[in-house]
């Protein structure tokens, strides 16, 4: 952020809307923001309460652990928030794609195959096609 700011010769202003952070000061320091320019609000002041569900896995090998999490993540989404937006945190961009594909694969084998499809197949077809093997969903 400091590099971009120095290149454009203007300060950068970030307005972020998300959940509260337990380490907001660390993130602010990393972004190069002063304490007076950092605001972190308690989850109780949200207009819509945030539901947080954490599920741990006791498998030491990283790839094995991530593979074993795919189906439980899908079932947790179906249990806790079947019709509302969900954020699944994973450790990398690559793992984001892999986890999304795993969730779609699990969904495709479910009775309600089109649970996440909130448009007509015609409208979503070009995007679904790009997802690889899921264009047949």
From TrEMBL:
<keyword id="KW-0547">Nucleotide-binding</keyword>
<keyword id="KW-0067">ATP-binding</keyword>
<dbReference type="GO" id="GO:0005634">
    <property type="term" value="C:nucleus"/>
</dbReference>
<dbReference type="InterPro" id="IPR027417">
    <property type="entry name" value="P-loop_NTPase"/>
</dbReference>
<dbReference type="GO" id="GO:0016787">
    <property type="term" value="F:hydrolase activity"/>
</dbReference>
<dbReference type="GO" id="GO:0005524">
    <property type="term" value="F:ATP binding"/>
</dbReference>
<keyword id="KW-0378">Hydrolase</keyword>
<protein>
    <submittedName>
        <fullName>Small nuclear ribonucleoprotein</fullName>
    </submittedName>
</protein>
<keyword id="KW-0687">Ribonucleoprotein</keyword>
<dbReference type="InterPro" id="IPR050474">
    <property type="entry name" value="Hel308_SKI2-like"/>
</dbReference>
<dbReference type="GO" id="GO:0004386">
    <property type="term" value="F:helicase activity"/>
</dbReference>
<dbReference type="GO" id="GO:1990904">
    <property type="term" value="C:ribonucleoprotein complex"/>
</dbReference>
<keyword id="KW-0347">Helicase</keyword>
């Amino acid at each position: 952020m400091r590099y971009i700011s120095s290149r454009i010769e203007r300060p950068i202003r970030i307005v972020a809307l998300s959940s509260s952070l337990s380490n907001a000061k660390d993130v602010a320091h990393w972004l190069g923001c002063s304490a007076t320019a950092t605001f972190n609000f308690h989850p109780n002041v949200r207009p819509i309460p945030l539901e947080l569900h954490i599920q741990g896995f006791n498998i030491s090998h990283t790839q094995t652990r991530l593979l074993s999490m795919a189906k439980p993540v899908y079932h947790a989404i179906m249990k806790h928030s079947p019709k509302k937006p969900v954020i699944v945190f994973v450790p990398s961009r690559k793992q984001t794609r892999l986890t999304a594909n795993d969730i779609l694969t699990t969904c495709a084998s479910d009775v309600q195959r089109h649970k996440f499809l909130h448009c007509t197949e015609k409208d979503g077809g070009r995007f679904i096609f790009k997802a690889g093997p899921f264009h047949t969903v």
